[in-house]
Design brief:
Elements: H1 3-16, H2 19-35, H3 39-56, H4 61-70
Helix pairs in contact: 1-2, 2-3, 3-4
Length: 80
């Protein structure tokens, strides 16, 4: 997905308060940024994905937490 489309879809997901889409889209933005070598942007986007995943009780939260923790960008939380 190109950045223009991604940005438009992120804005739309925010307007609709669609947490599932926000998790997916912020994860995609993080992945694309990481692939492009822009690590600060990658962890910014992935942190947003993680926060939305936590709020939604998404099964993606532990995986996102682990990615962030591995890079020293978050502490590893306990999920029970």
């Amino acid at each position: 997905m190109n950045w223009e489309t991604l940005d438009r879809e992120l804005l739309d997901a925010h307007a609709k308060e669609d947490r599932d889409a926000l998790i997916r889209l912020y994860t995609e933005a993080g992945n694309q940024s990481e692939t492009a070598g822009n690590t600060d942007a990658a962890w910014f986007y992935l942190t947003h994905a993680f926060v939305f995943a936590l709020e939604a009780g998404s099964p993606d939260a532990p995986h996102l937490n682990a990615r962030l923790a591995e890079q020293g960008r978050a502490i590893m939380l306990s999920y029970q």
